Amino acid sequence: MAPARTETNITAEKLSREWTSQQAKLAARVSSSTNAVLKLDETGETLCVWYWPVNEDGEHIIPSDLVAYRNSHQFRAPHCLCAFMDNHDPVNHCEAAIVISMWGPNAGQYLACCALSKCGYVVCVERMHTSLSLPIKRYLRRRPDEARPLEIIFFDGNGTYYMEQVMIAR
Length: 170
What we know:
The chain is of the alpha/beta class. The protein has helices at 2-32, 66-72, 82-85, 125-128, and strands at 37-40, 47-50, 52-53, 96-101, 110-114, 122-123, 136-137, 154-155, 161-162, 167-169.
């Protein structure tokens, strides 16, 4: 029995390394995309395009207004990679938090990043929103009696969480 258990552990270790490697590749692909914001698809297995919201005149919603637009329209932030890490569980689709980076190469710019600081999902939406080739969509306005989405709580990875509309990331 012991050898079978060892083989199982090796297999589990190997699978864990493969998942981590695939997740890192997806995160790198998301961060390096220049003409489209990529998100995890509904299956939790592959990346797909996230459509940038536009107003009634076809103008891109600016990054500082994305949280307010999410409350007034049938619109969601991109899904991070957490569902991929959780065995493609569609129940675990997490919306990215829209934050302002205070440190590093993106300091002062808006980012979409994993709200749990768990999967490595980071997109500099500040640089993306002016791209003319950015895939866009005009989302429907929420009805007055329609429920608003819950506020996204951002965990910075250091045990601190933020519930403000404009949050801070490292």
